[in-house]
TrEMBL record:
<dbReference type="InterPro" id="IPR001509">
    <property type="entry name" value="Epimerase_deHydtase"/>
</dbReference>
<keyword id="KW-0520">NAD</keyword>
<protein>
    <submittedName>
        <fullName>NAD(P)-dependent oxidoreductase</fullName>
    </submittedName>
</protein>
<dbReference type="InterPro" id="IPR036291">
    <property type="entry name" value="NAD(P)-bd_dom_sf"/>
</dbReference>
<feature type="domain" description="NAD-dependent epimerase/dehydratase">
    <location>
        <begin position="105"/>
        <end position="212"/>
    </location>
</feature>
<dbReference type="Pfam" id="PF01370">
    <property type="entry name" value="Epimerase"/>
</dbReference>
Length: 295
C-alpha cells in the first residue's frame, strides 16, 4: 500500500467501511460523510472522522484529502444533467474538478451496466447496455465522474461490483430470520463478491492509481442463487428452504428485475492490472469464513 494519506469517503457504506477498516490501522485518515447526524458516533467509533454532508462546508475536508471514493448511488432519470444524476457531483462536482492536489478518485458502480447477456460472459470491454433505469443511471454517473476526474487531471477507477455479501449481509441472516427463499429459475446465475475482496481491490487501485480506469469486482464462480442458499443452510446446520419456481414466486418489482438479467462476470483485469489475489474466490470460501467469524 502507498504512503498513508487521507481518504474522503462519500456515502460511507458497507464496502467503504470495510476499506476504512483496512486503511486506518496502516495510518490512513478517513473522513466519512453521512446524511444522518445520529450516525456520527458509530462512524467515530471505527476511527474515521464523521462529516454530516450535505449541510456543511466541504472545503476543509477536500483540502485535506489525497484520495476520494464515492459509494453514493445516482438518481434515476437525471442522466442528462451535467452531474449525471449523481448527488455527490451535484453538490461537490465543481470543487472536485478543481481539486488538483488529489492523487486518485474512485467510484463504486455495478455490473448491472452490462444488462442481460443470457448467461454469457462480460468483461470491462463489453459495451454497456443497461436494462433497468437504475443501471442506466449508473452509466450516466460513470461518465460524469470520468469528466470530473479528467477536469481535475486526476486518475479515476470505476469499480463495477457484482452482488455484495459479507458479515451481516449473507444468506445466514435470512436463514436464521426464517425469510430465506430458494427461488429457482432454470439457467439463472448471479456473480458475487465478498466485501473483504472489495476492500482489498479498492486499496490495490489506490496503490496503482493509473493501472486501469474500469475494473469488474466479482469472484471466480457465478452460481444459481438457490445453490448459495442451500450451501449456507448446510454449513449452518439449518433446514434448506424448499425450492420455489420463479414463475410462482411472490416477488416485488425490484427483486423480479434482478432475475430479468443473467450474466457471468470476468475478473481477469482485477487480477492482472491490480495484482489482486482473491481472499474468497467463490461463495463457498466466503460463507465458510463468515460462519467461522460468527456471522
Amino acid at each position: 500500500m502507498s504512503t498513508p494519506g487521507t481518504l474522503l469517503s462519500f456515502g460511507h457504506g458497507y464496502s467503504a467501511q470495510a476499506l476504512a477498516a483496512r486503511l486506518i490501522p496502516l495510518g490512513w485518515q478517513v473522513i466519512a460523510t453521512t446524511r444522518r447526524p445520529e450516525a456520527r458516533a458509530a462512524i467515530a467509533a471505527t476511527g474515521a472522522t464523521p462529516l454530516v454532508w450535505p449541510g456543511c462546508d466541504l472545503a476543509p475536508a477536500l483540502a485535506r484529502a489525497s484520495h476520494v471514493l464515492s459509494s453514493v448511488p445516482p438518481v434515476p432519470g437525471q442522466g442528462d444533467a451535467p452531474s449525471g444524476g449523481d448527488p455527490v457531483l451535484e453538490g461537490a462536482g465543481a470543487a472536485l474538478a478543481q481539486a488538483r492536489h488529489l492523487t486518485w478518485m474512485g467510484y463504486l458502480s455495478t455490473t448491472g451496466v452490462y444488462g442481460d447477456h443470457a448467461g454469457g460472459w462480460v468483461d470491462e470491454d463489453t459495451p454497456t447496455a443497461p436494462g433497468a433505469p437504475r443501471s442506466a443511471a449508473r452509466v450516466a454517473a460513470e461518465a460524469a465522474w470520468t469528466r470530473t476526474a479528467a477536469a481535475a487531471g486526476v486518475p479515476l477507477t470505476v469499480f463495477r461490483l457484482a452482488g455484495i455479501y459479507g458479515p451481516g449481509r449473507s444468506p445466514f441472516d435470512t436463514l436464521r430470520a426464517g425469510t430465506a427463499r430458494a427461488i429457482v429459475k432454470p439457467g439463472q446465475v448471479f456473480s458475487r463478491i465478498h466485501v473483504d475482496d472489495i476492500a482489498q481491490a479498492i486499496a490495490a487501485a489506490m496503490a496503482r492509481p493509473t493501472a486501469t480506469a474500469v475494473v469488474n469486482l466479482a469472484d471466480d464462480l457465478s452460481a444459481p442463487p438457490q445453490e448459495v442458499i442451500w450451501h449456507a443452510a448446510d454449513l449452518a446446520g439449518l433446514p434448506r428452504p424448499p425450492a420455489i419456481p420463479f414463475d410462482a414466486a411472490d416477488l416485488g418489482a425490484m427483486a423480479r428485475s434482478f432475475y430479468a438479467e443473467c450474466r457471468r462476470t470476468r475478473n481477469d483485469r482485477l487480477k492482472s492490472a491490480l495484482g489482486v489475489r482473491l481472499i474468497h474466490p467463490d461463495y463457498r470460501s466466503g460463507l465458510a469464513a463468515i460462519l467461522r467469524a460468527g456471522g
